[in-house]
Design brief:
alpha+beta, two-stranded antiparallel ribbon, binds iron/sulfur cluster, 93 residues, two-stranded antiparallel sheet, 3 helices, elongated
């Protein structure tokens, strides 16, 4: 259903006829690490993540797996690395 609380107008899994079913009754604002991420969006109610209702949880155990501002750095370093599938085939021969 479409959100009626902090991310008004956006489709959300937690919204139903009774209101927002997420813990606390609404999304939690982004955390410092989210700055620069394209999924963070400003609403009249604050800045919220378009993918996760509680961004702090996504950063508790390391980097958020959907952070768009971190992916760019990762792509540059993975270049030239051996394809793990090919590597395992080589070892098998
Ligand atoms: S996708 Fe991750 S890094 Fe980006 S705003 Fe959401 S929680 Fe933050």
């Amino acid at each position: 259903m479409v959100c009626q609380t902090v991310r008004q107008g956006f489709e959300c899994f937690f919204m139903n006829k009774k209101g927002c079913q997420f813990n606390g009754g609404s999304c939690h604002p982004i955390v410092e690490q989210c700055n620069g991420c394209q999924r963070a969006m400003e609403f009249p109610t604050g800045t919220y993540c378009l993918s996760f209702p509680d961004p702090a949880i996504k950063w508790q155990a390391g980097n958020c797996n959907l952070a768009t501002h971190l992916k760019k750095a990762g792509n540059g370093t993975s270049r030239g690395k051996l394809n793990p599938l090919k590597a395992s085939k080589r070892r098998a021969h």
